[in-house]
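During the reporting period the student researcher (J.K.) took over the structure-prediction task from the postdoctoral fellow and processed the backlog of single-chain submissions. One of the processed entries is reproduced below for the supervisory committee.
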Amino acid sequence: HGAHIGTVLTHSLGGGTGSGLGSRLAVELRDEYPRVPLFTLSVLPITAGENPVQCFNALLALATLQEVADGILLYENDRLMALAS
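J.K. obtained the following structure tokens:
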């Protein structure tokens, strides 16, 4: 067996690592496995976050993911926080 049947990438979109490295990883996976399904579970940044460029990071990451991913499932961090409390 050993066949690659698909990838689900889980990452956040607000910080540099999740948005930048996560997007880059998605691009690399698409290049390496062009015919294999690629899905992302992406968490949007919190509305009142401390990073002033988090919305810009999310925008750039989503633009890249839109090009390379077969599906993007977005979670709102604010709603996840509300469910947890």
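The committee noted the following: The helical segments are 16-32, 54-68, 77-84.
J.K. will present the remaining backlog at the next meeting.
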